[in-house]
Each structure stands twice: as C-alpha cells, then as structure tokens.
Amino acid sequence: MQIKKNKTKIAVCGLGYVGYPVALLFAKAGFEVVGVDLNEEKVKKINRGINPIQGKEPGLNELTKEVYKKDNFRATTDQAIYKDADVIIVAVETPVEDETHEPAYIALKSALKAIGRNLKKDSLIIIESTIAPGTMDNIVKPILEGESGLNVNRDFLLANCPERLMPGHLLENIVNYNRVLGGSPKITALARELYKHIIKGKIDETDWITAEVVKAGENAYRDVQIAFANEMALLCEAMGANVWKVRELINECKKVKDTRSEALRQMHLPGAGVGGHCIPKDPWLLIYGAKDLIDPKIIPLARQINNFMPRHMMDLLKEALKEAGKDINSVKIAVLGYAYAGNSDDCRNTPTDTLLKLLGQTEAKVIVQDPFVKDYKLPLDQVLKGAQAIILMTDHDQYKKISLSKLKKLMKVTKPIIVDGRNCFNKEEAQKTGFIYKGVGNI
Ligand code: SAJ
To answer: Which of 79, 156, 247, 417 makes a 20 to 30 Å CA pair with 37?
Structure first.
C-alpha cells in the first residue's frame, strides 16, 4: 500500500479527545476521513460542523469549521465503512477496573471485532489508545486475525502509536509532541509516511512491546514523581518544615551544571491528589503487562500515596476544626475546585470526589464551587458566606486572586479555616489575617 492524500481513505474509530482532533488533522491535510463513533448525538453534532469536545481547546473550533467547509470528513455510527478504509486509527478508551485495576477492554475489543469483520486486505491498522504491554500481541492481533481470517503482516498491517495528549493542548500535542511508533520496520516506515502529514515532532520507530511500555511507563514515572512530592509533604508536616520551601531549594540544586536534564531533577508538586484520564490508570496498565510475573512495589505504592492525599485533606480539616473548637457536624464547608487540574473543566477521576465522600459521612453542610464545571459555577460570595472552612482542591487561577481579607469578610465566622491543597495561599499572611491555616506540607 502507498499513502497518497487523494487516494488513501482513513477511518478513525472513536471520536473522543484523541480521535476527533486526529480525524480533523488528517482531513485538513487533504485525506478523505470517516470518523466512527457509537454515540449518535455526537455523530450528528459533528456532521453539523459542531466541535463535540468540551473545555478550552485552542484551535479546535476553528479547525472544525475549516474542515467542515472542505467537506472531506464525516462521522457515522456505521461500522461497515471500515470495508473501504485503507487506514484505520483506533482511539477508544481503555480504562482500568476500580477494584482490580485490571484493564477494562470492552470498548477496545468491540471496536476490534467490528474492524476485523470489515477488514480490507492490505489495510493498515494503528492503535493509538494507551494499552497494557502485551495487548498488541495478546488481544489486538488475535481478535483482528480471528474476525477477518486474515494474517497480520501478510494480509494486513498493524502498528501501535500511543497518543500523548493533554486536555487543553490537544492539537498542539498531536502536531508537536514526539511519538513512539511500534511495529515491524516495514510497517512503521509506512505509518511514518502517514503521520508525517500531521506530525512535526520526532517519530521514534520501535517494536510493539517497547511502544506499549513507553506510553504506560512515562505516566507511571510521573505518578511516582508526584507521590515522592506528596510523601515529602507528609514528612515536612511531621517535622515542622514547609515542603514548598524545601522543594524550591531542592530544585535550586539544578543550578549545578551536570549532565542530567533539569526536568529530571525537578521535585514535583505535592497536592490534594492526582486525578485525570491517564495518570491514575496508566501505572496499572503498565504493571498488568507483567501480571503474575513480578510483584512491583514502587508503582502500586505511589498510587496508594497519591490516592491518600484527598483523605489527608480531611485530616487537615479535622485538625483545624479541633483548634477552632468547632464541631464538623454543625459547620458549613466550602470546597473550592472540582476539576482534576487547574483552569480545566475536566473532572475525570477528580480527587475532590474522594473528599466529598468523606465529608458526606458527616453532618457538615458542604458546598462545592468550580468556575469551570457546569454544576458548580456558583457565585463565590454565596458559597463562602457562613463557611467555617474552605478546602482548596484545585489551583484555578481565580482562587489565587482572592484577597485573604476579602475571604474572611465573605465567610463572616470566628476562627475561619483555610485547608490549602495546592499552595494557593500564603500561610503567614493567612494567619496574620486571622485564619487557621493548614496547607499540604505546610501546617
Ligand atoms: N499533579 C500533582 N503534582 C504534580 C503534577 C500533577 O499533584 O506535580 C496532579 C494534578 O493536580 C492532577 C494530576 O496530578 O490532578 C494529573 O496532572 P497532570 O499534569 O499529569 O495532567 P494530565 O493528567 O493531563 O497528564 C498528562 C499526561 N500526558 C499524557 O498522558 C499524554 C502526562 O504524561 C503529562 O506529563 C501531563 O499531561 C503534563 O505534562 O501536563
């Protein structure tokens, strides 16, 4: 097969935050693209030229309009269109089970079955979803071969090119981030021919298992780095140090000229927890690849530490209420921030859910505010009025701008409390203003 813009037909399976921008970029590059999604509403929206992705995504609305005019991209729920596709990019969700942390491949398996049943000879299939190491060999290949009766490499080509996307930067990431491309050399060379139409970043060719381990591993590494910062915060609280000052001075060490890159030396940010669509799940995908073979310690422990942090916010609240001589069951608590990351509306796996569950076990009156999340866009003065404590869970810029004296005036209580999960307020200033202040790593 050859990759030619006016000839190669591309199908994108899954029109979420990965598949939708990828489909648009290939259409913009001049390919005929059909996006397949099971969500009828979403398909209708896309075919009316409406961007289905929520949240601030620079350039995505404009690209939606530009491609809509070119009329070479359409969406459908009809999986039979794979019959005409020369290239099929799979970008469906690959969550892990809450209890077992095992991959939940429902979407992936059903997509692969539909593709296998409609597989065209000599087509190129590329898996962009994040998958546990070994999935290409043990799940993807057998389903595609089993459903199609064709043989990989001989009758069709199969590659793994894991997405590396952050909400809020989708188009920028697809175009500029370096990518890893797993498959046999002939296949990765062909896939490179395809991706060069939309990717400016470097493309590193390797094999399936390496590509799978790199993607899950890079996020597991970040999770461990964050867990270290969180454990440092807990240690600093116990030892009476300010973790933010400690972190600043540790990172100051980067001034020492040495070979390691500064980023590798940077201690990460302690906080109220780790949410999002990838960091909480990818470590589990990574170790699943070695299930029953070895018993990893650091990676599960990092998950445990990071999952503890929203619970620790509750501990800090209880300590502060005790100092204030207040009973949790008779106070109002204002939780600031529901989204999992600052200045985002993305709430997937938000640590705030864990905190709300714990608060829900008390009689406290709890109110949540978040300027980016539809259900919580409440006026701050209404939320703060009469609140004995605020718990800062998400570092939205809006929260950092609130003056402490204004905060105190709005709360209108004696011995007001700040539990600061993201180092948004200055402890000394808060105390001077009359707050009981408990910050993660700085109490
Ligand atoms: N967090 C901390 N401390 C930190 C960094 C993050 O507590 O030092 C928390 C955040 O508050 C958030 C969670 O971790 O709740 C995840 O934050 P994130 O910055 O990792 O954002 P994500 O989930 O969008 O991660 C993505 C990942 N990108 C891909 O999977 C392609 C990750 O690999 C990136 O490193 C990360 O974006 C990034 O660099 O922003």
So the answer is: 156
